[in-house]
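Technical appendix A lists one of the benchmark inputs used to test multi-chain prediction within the project. The record comprises four sequence entries:
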Amino acid sequence: MKASESKIRVRYAETDKMGFVYHANYYIWFEVSRADFIRISGMTYKDMESQGIGMPVISTDCVYHTAAHYDDLLTIKASIEELTPVRIKFKYQVFRDEDNKSIAEGHTEHVFVRTADGRPVNLKKKHTALYELLCEFSRKEEI
Amino acid sequence: MKASESKIRVRYAETDKMGFVYHANYYIWFEVSRADFIRISGMTYKDMESQGIGMPVISTDCVYHTAAHYDDLLTIKASIEELTPVRIKFKYQVFRDEDNKSIAEGHTEHVFVRTADGRPVNLKKKHTALYELLCEFSRKEEI
Amino acid sequence: MKASESKIRVRYAETDKMGFVYHANYYIWFEVSRADFIRISGMTYKDMESQGIGMPVISTDCVYHTAAHYDDLLTIKASIEELTPVRIKFKYQVFRDEDNKSIAEGHTEHVFVRTADGRPVNLKKKHTALYELLCEFSRKEEI
Amino acid sequence: MKASESKIRVRYAETDKMGFVYHANYYIWFEVSRADFIRISGMTYKDMESQGIGMPVISTDCVYHTAAHYDDLLTIKASIEELTPVRIKFKYQVFRDEDNKSIAEGHTEHVFVRTADGRPVNLKKKHTALYELLCEFSRKEEI
């Protein structure tokens, strides 16, 4: 299993009046992290969309261990938790660089669709190369 | 168990290039819905904070059944899923008014803290009236 | 000149660690207000897009008079500041309901384009009815 | 006059259904850029706040030359446009790395306040060192 590492600097816009990062923003960081994960595989999510493949989100979850603050430098690790020809589930771990503390961890689950009409797609059949690439990067080689 | 109903009109800002609502925005709607839930109990979350009680989020999850679109009018139902003197878990259901379709459902879990220092607080002991109010609104009267 | 009035309840997500509303969010409220302005004209911005007309933003500005806070109920008035067959400029005024204070005012300027290819469109020629409708709602009947 | 350069990778969350970056997000990038500008001066905005100085926004404006797209790598240049002991105005220019196109330019104007009570502060009197540092970085050495 491969993992990517993304650096995020907390923006003022991402904090709320409690003084910490607003919880919904972690999912945006997960998106950044997921894009970086795909990027290290040699393609980009933008490329995937250009080739007619999208990955709309079907479920998300996150557990928050401790608060992240404005200007914190964070590292987000992304990896593939599950992969089938029709679905993919990513796992994310957020760490603060300063004290190496685990800030949060979560998941996002996606289906593969044709961007043209939003219909589900069997990635293994329709884009074998891409599917095999993702298999290579996932924990389980194939299901 | 009581439930609140909030109306949300999807903003253009909440959509993404896929043409639908970006998934992280549901958690912001959950916040609106949670605030309305507390409001119908006769106080507001703003009041709670003024009285020194905060409810930082410790976990969130959401399952997306179908896409919401720009300008959709949505109804979000909030209810209490679990309540203890130190924690509360809300459940949310999102429906589209036009076709009454279930769009998504999710949860947010919170701890009660003193806003002064962020320390956990036993709501039952420290703010019995508020705790009893929430009990009254929750499925289980008390744990 | 007609004006629309939109009600906005400040979301927690819209605040920042300074304790007030983060400045960029006013532009999102302007969008809500602009959509309501178009709605009272008898159509919706969603309809406009369905008919192949978009209004991408070419400039924005805002002056902030005083801070808006979490849970504030705000009224946003929108009106047309300028209208030509190829451009439209909206004006927005934000008031807090509680004390009727002027919170902010700003503008957004848009061009009319064909959504199909993003090319500028002469609204007066291509969609005379819509243009006349907007004229009716603007300060100056026509330029 | 010194200028800072920040790199921004466009997030999916920052796009809207038109397929481009939603206009309000530029102001968030300006914030990132402003923070980087302060950072190269040897302190951080976080430090400023720790020392009791805030810079709430009193006006913002932006002109959009062309659309930015998902995954675009952008460079944002920030510089000081005006500086007095009580106010500061920043200028921002956004370029796309791929084609070096100018995407947008804008400004944000801020007052110096005490974070303790939000009262205006004369930076030159109260924090001479910080004021002189900013002078050094601004076009006009002093007003």
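Chain C has a mean pLDDT of 94. Chain C has one domain: 3-138. Comparable benchmark entries are summarised in Table A2.
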